[in-house]
Automatic annotation (TrEMBL):
GO CC aspect terms: cytoplasmic side of plasma membrane; ESCRT III complex; multivesicular body
Family stated for the protein in its record: Belongs to the SNF7 family.
Protein name, as recorded: Vacuolar-sorting protein SNF7
UniProt-annotated stretches for the region Disordered: 1-20
Coiled-coil intervals, chain numbering: 71-98
Organism: Thyridium curvatum
TM ranges: none
Keywords carried by this UniProt record: Coiled coil, Endosome
Main location: other
One GO term of the biological process aspect: late endosome to vacuole transport via multivesicular body sorting pathway
Length: 224
């Protein structure tokens, strides 16, 4: 029951206000169409009376005058009709422009309401606060990545040990290169000199032992 009352007093009235410009324009256009038809009919009547006047201008002056009189009446009616047509056209244009303005304003109002609904309680301060939080989280992420990539897993290797091993590898490569070319480094010559001397002494001792053994063997043979 209440919805019916609202549709009658509220919704019906609103719809009527909305349709009012449309109905007014339709009514004006219908009247304009009738006046345009009347304009065409009056012009036809004027042409007809003009032809009668021309036909009787020399033979029947009274008929010619009567025709001209009717032509003037039609001409007066035509002027009134054309003035009414002009007024109706202006009125139609005014209503259409007003209706367009109203619809444009209503569309702008709906757009404003939509923007307000989208923004809600959003304010520049809240935007700044959100952006600050995002910057903090980005900075934290960078710190975490830096901590993960700079702190390697396992024990750290001593640089001194690496340098010592590197020098040994370089010396080994140098020795191999010199051996291939037949050149002995000075350091190796110095190291090998005592070794050569020791070899010579050992050789002499071995030679002397052999001579003593040979001598004892000879003495034993002579005793026999």
């Amino acid at each position: 029951m209440s919805s019916g009352i609202w549709g009658w007093f509220g919704g019906g009235a609103a719809q009527k206000r909305k349709d009012s410009p449309k109905n007014a324009i339709l009514g004006l256009r219908s009247q304009l169409d009738m006046l345009q038809k009347r304009e065409k009919h009056l012009k036809s009547q004027m042409e007809e009376q003009d032809a009668i006047a021309r036909k009787n201008v020399n033979t029947n002056k009274n008929a010619a005058k009567a025709a001209l009189r009717r032509k003037k009446a039609h001409e007066h009616s035509l002027d009134q009709t054309m003035a009414q047509i002009q007024t109706l056209e202006q009125q139609i244009n005014a209503i259409e422009s007003a209706n367009i303005n109203r619809e444009t304003l209503a569309a702008m109002q709906r757009a404003g309401e939509a923007m307000q609904a989208i923004h809600g309680k959003l304010t520049p301060e809240k935007v700044d606060e959100t952006m600050e939080k995002l910057r903090e989280q980005n900075a934290l992420s960078e710190e975490i990545v830096s901590a993960i990539t700079t702190n390697a897993l396992g024990e750290a290797v001593d640089d001194a040990d690496l340098e010592e091993e590197l020098e040994a590898m370089q010396q080994e490569q140098l020795d191999e290169s010199l051996l291939k070319t037949g050149t002995v480094p000075v350091s190796d010559q110095i190291q090998r000199m005592p070794a050569a001397a020791n070899g010579e002494i050992k050789g002499k001792a071995v030679e002397e032992d052999d001579e003593e053994a040979e001598l004892r063997k000879l003495q034993a043979e002579m005793a026999m």
